[in-house]
Design goal:
alpha+beta; 11-stranded mixed sheet; Dipeptide-binding Protein, domain 1; 3 domains; 14 helices; 22% helix; 3-stranded antiparallel sheet; D-Maltodextrin-Binding Protein, domain 2; Dipeptide-binding Protein, domain 3
Amino acid sequence: MGTSNLILNRRRTLGLMGATGIAAALPGFGPLGQAAAAGTPAGQVIVGFSQEPTVFNPNLPHIEVDEGIYYAIFDTLIDVNPDGSFFPLLAAEVPTQANGGISEDGKTWTVKLREGVTWHDGTPFTAHDVKFTLELLVNPDFRSWRRNGHELISAIEVVSDTEIRWTMERAFAPYASILATTWIVPRHAFEGVDPNDAPFNNSPIGTGAFKWANRVAGDHIELVANTDYFGDGPHLERLVVKYIPDMTVLYTQFRSGDIDCVGVQWISPDHYEEARGLPERVVTVDGVGFFESMALNQLKPLFQEKAVREALYAAIDKEAIIDALYYGVPTPTETFMPREFPYYNENLPAHEFSIARANEILDGAGWTRGADGIREKDGTRLAFTNSTTAGNHLREQVQQFLQQTFLEIGAEMTISNLPPAVMWGDYWMLSQFDTVIVGLNVFAGPDPDCADFFMSTSIPAKGGNGQNTFAYESAEVDRLLAEGAGLMSFEERLPIYRRLQEVIREDLPFLPIYQYAVVRGKKEGLEGYTANINNRIDTWNVRDWSWT
């Protein structure tokens, strides 16, 4: 990213309020990582997250930051590389039609499992654990984070301890990608207990490269090497995930060396120029599958009116926000689809910032200004709250900017921010908000299916299992998602997912602002810390990390 793209845009005057903080060394941890002897885990890595992982059963409703822990503790059957290719983990090989793992009609899957894998407590891993996990996800009494795809399984057969077979009601193209984020849990840990409240949920047991060691709520989580891991790793003796909610403090601790690499929400763009010149640091700008938006709760009558959604969108000055607050690092977008995906629709209507147009829309829809300048219609004021993560100073500045521009169109936005653990708990997952500034990745791996976020049956606040917290409902979107998931070829699916983007852009259940280009940072000598647009968190391959 050249410096010419980072020039502050002064077109609109913004009060940039830099937060300050003092880096604090993490107590109780020894010297930072040293290179490991061959086959021996050595050293530690401290990862800084600006949000706190709080959900440790990977099959309960959770957000991206929780997956930062899952990738260390648990394994999936298969996972996906940065180039979109799948590779086996608990599976002995990736099931395909070519190797007989998937039947010609796409309905029957036969998965051969690795031999000799054990859970962290020493219990052997078997096909019964896979069967238990797949059945748990569709158990109506379990608060499952995802039923989509799994609910198509009509029969599961344990062929042997190292082989499992299931049949699906119909071919379902996204299922390989869904399996790549389906972490397998131990059957024996849930025997005789309610899986929603099992002791496992606070002391997880996995097959992964690291074992659960200790958690200090509000501060850090410590994981230690699983020396019985079946794979080539781990190479680290210890992994510490440090929770640093203030983005400026997060960067300051990276600069001072108190943390070794920066994860969610990474280095904020206002620190990029300094960060890339730091000695003994490697700083890169990488495209990711996340997009930033202002999410609108469709359960609120105010946002069920399309004119309101259109007017608010017209009143968002994306260019000023991106250039002045984010130093030109991210790219404006009209969709949830990353530009790097082949399904990206480049022909969506271009957003135009226009206060005049926003006022015209509201005037035409019958929203009239009251004595205080705020519009009203049928006794309802055009007033709402907006929330995001407390301590994310750039988002807080975006909120202040939006608050001012929305006043110009007669809309009153009250800022109400919350700590991450509260913000992304029931408040977000059960659609208790009015509007939210949020970054989302709506995909499981490289597949374009996003039913978990946009299908009407995926609304948690209405009893659905999914992450459609917008509470967005569209018969056409439901039809497109169902049709696209049932097709196997790229050529057949392409027009469907491009049309899907058109419909959602027209409906505006969220107001898209930009696609993320995140500023990653690590210490020199930390190997394996690699960007992967097909995963939602930087620890996707922590089993491979090492010091040189």
